[in-house]
Amino acid sequence: MRPSIIHQSAAGHRVPPNFADYEAERARFTWAAARAELAETPGGGLNIAHNAVTRHARGPGRDRVAFRFLAGADARTVTYGELDADTNRFANVLAGLGVGRGDAVFVLAGRIPELYLAVLGSLKNGSPVSPLFAAFGPEPIATRLNLGSGRVLVTTASLYRTKVAKIRDRVPTLRHVLVVPDDPDDPEPTPPGTVDLTALLAAASDDFATVPTAPDDLALLHFTSGTTGTPKGAMHVHEAAVTHWATGRYALDLHPDDVFWCTADPGWVTGTSYGIIAPLLHGVTSVVDAADFDAGRWYRILAEQRVTVWYTAPTAIRMLMKAGPDLARAWPRPDLRLIASVGEPLNPEAVWWGRDVLGLSIHDNWWQTETGGIMIANTPAFDIKPGSMGRPLPGVEATIVRRTDDGVEPLGDGVEGELALRAGWPSMFRGYLNNPERYARCFAGDWYLTGDLAERDADGYYWFVGRADDVIKSAGHLIGPFEVESVLMEHPAVAEAAVIGKPDAMVGEIVKAFVSLKRDVVADETLRLDILAHARRRLGAAVAPKELGFLDSLPRTRSGKIMRRLLKARELGLPEGDTSTMEGGAS
Ligand code: AMP
User: Is the C-beta atom of 269 inside 6 A of ligand 1?
Assistant: First the structure.
């Protein structure tokens, strides 16, 4: 049997980690001291993009490479100096369109250079920005643009034609759609109603005075899902950069000469906090690959780009495990020194596989859209317990609680409860868009309640148990059942719909839907495929159900709520639990 702990000693590291004594660093750490590592914007305040880009461009880091964009029609390398000039151009484009402080900019694109320019340029302009996942279908795009009152959308010609054009008239706030050609060497005419971003950038000045945003000015919008209702727009502020900087230091151990690769898409919070902001704050070089997962390609990137710190996800690691050790060993990685992973449980076997096959333990860490940055982590400074998410980072106070009628009660070690964090870290979300009640319900006194069930052991390590709600985690992406059910219900044959997460060895969970049909509609294979295709068209492949079952009726509580948990228990052949509140159930 494997031992339950992997010992790491600071002395055994090729590059000494940024900290070696966990307890001492926690005792010493203050957010005020971390804040002092960042610069004020000329004119005052705190601006993420000033710290991420301009500060380096105006110093010795000017010629250092900020991004290596690997794939796509427009592969290129961009230095901090160039990134500063290009993001100034983008900010000037916005200003020229009359888009100002507080006006929301959305970006819907693959991992192309313009996505990165748009995010950072918007921040310079004081415009909150929201990158959307390019694999979303028209429906999630429309919902999010409307929730965030999107005024500008940056997208590509093909995404505009296939997705945005269909919903544009449903987004009344949207004034400007700025389009990047799919092939910069052979641009087609920009679609009617849109403007050519390339031409605007070429004509814009590369000189811009970053707006002196206040630390608590809105900077980023990331959408996340709950069990019920529309997605929730988590609001993050410029001060979040303090957490991005600190966690880049402690959890990702970033050093100035690092080549860092975060494989997450900026459409999800990890791809923005750690695919854009944290590495730039540390002045390191980031690799960006626009292509989809491919085991051989990923090993080649790690080797050829000489990646030193790699931040990825358990689904990707499981896919690499499936591709076999020979492929892993075919590409030497002498430069790689730290692998971290986030987003879903990382099986202990995966940690051991990393050690055996990649030669490095995988450092699991935990956080969520609302926390804006890594909160709990296995760091290079202490031993790893495979299967555990690690320990709270310096500046983060975590606990396990049980909700009571008048607040929460802290629980002891080894007792399962809800993971809670002491409010007040800089990247904590400051609200859900247009939903103050939902935001207030996340807190009990000083504690932010995460919605995750976990346990803490006697050494202070946290162990993930599950979600307290019905959201689905598929390939690291959080999917709200309500959003999927609403689209299923639009199909003319469907009377009612419920979706669950069905466990899957590779991607964690897949979305499985159950529907009951309208009177006189006959359930058959053609209809099943038609409903699945409808969902895929409207929601996009990342969100749509992969499986669909027909039921005569869906189990409901007496108050009319669909009992997803019961559907899940039946699907998995598990005990059905308490059904006393069920319609027609035992009383
Ligand atoms: P998101 O807001 O989309 O980033 O999803 C956050 C959720 O992903 C958390 O609330 C957890 O349920 C799950 N999650 C994130 N990191 C981990 C981890 N290391 N282990 C287990 N679950 C995780």
Answer: yes
Give yes or no for residue 237 CB within 6 A of ligand 1.
Answer: no
- Chain centroid to Cα 407, Å, comes to 29
- The CB of 364 under 6 Å from ligand 1? The reply is yes
Nearest CA to ligand 1 atom 1: 368
How far apart (Å, rounded) are the C-alpha atoms in residues 23 and 318?
Answer: 33
393 DSSP 8-state letter? P
Q: What is the pLDDT of residues 191-248, one digit of tens each?
A: 999 999 999 999 999 999 999 999 999 999 999 988 777 899 999 999 999 999 999 9
Chain center to CA of 309: 18
How would you label 49-84 residue by residue, b for 16+ Cβ within 10 Å and e otherwise? bbbbbbbbbeeebeebbbbbbbbbeeeeebbbbbbb
Ligand 1: distance of its center to the CA of 440 in Å? 21
AA identity, residue 566: L
Under DSSP, the state recorded for 473 is E
- Identify which of 270, 448, 452 to mutate to test ligand 1's pocket (most ligand atoms within 8 A of the CB): 452
Q: What is the CATH number of domain 470-572?
A: 3.30.300.30
Q: How far apart are CA 244 and CA 372, in angstroms?
A: 8
Amino acid, res. 304: E
Structural contact between residues 346 and 362, judged by C-beta atoms closer than 8 angstroms: yes
Residue 541 to residue 295: CA distance in whole angstroms:
21
Evaluate: CB of 276 within 6 angstroms of ligand 1.
no
Q: From the CA atom positions of the chain, what is the Rg in Å? A: 24
> 276 to each of 95, 162, 265, 272, 545, how far by Cα in Å?
23, 27, 10, 5, 30
Q: Is 344 in the pocket of ligand 1 (CB under 6 A)?
A: yes
Q: Determine if ligand 1 sits within 6 Å of the CB of residue 260.
A: no
State pLDDT tens for residues 276-307: 999 999 999 999 999 999 999 999 999 999 99
Give, using CA atoms, the residue closest to atom 7 of ligand 1. Answer: 368
Q: Is the CB of 345 under 6 A from ligand 1?
A: yes
Q: Which atom of ligand 1 is nearest to the CA of 222?
A: 2
Which tokens in the block code for residue 53?
């880009």
What is the 369 CA–ligand 1 centroid distance (Å)? 9
Pocket test residue of 227, 268, 317, 366 for ligand 1, highest count of atoms within 8 A of CB: 366
3-state DSSP of 499-560: EEEEEECCCEEEEEEEEEECCCCCCCHHHHHHHHHHHHHHHCCCCCCCEEEECCCCCEECCC
pLDDT tens digits, one per residue of 55-107? 999 999 999 999 999 976 667 999 999 999 999 999 999 999 999 999 999 99
> How many Cα neighbours within 13 Å face the side chain of 202?
6
Q: Map out the domains of the chain as residue ranges.
A: 78-237, 470-572
Q: Atom 22, ligand 1: which residue's CA is nearest?
A: 344
Beta partners for residue 373, in sequence order:
none
Could you identify the atom of ligand 1 that is nearest to the CA of residue 269? 4
* SS3 label, residue 123: helix
Residue nearest to atom 6 of ligand 1 (CA): 368
Superfamily of domain 78-237: ANL, N-terminal domain (3.40.50.12780)
Residue 313 — φ and ψ, nearest 5°?
-130, 155
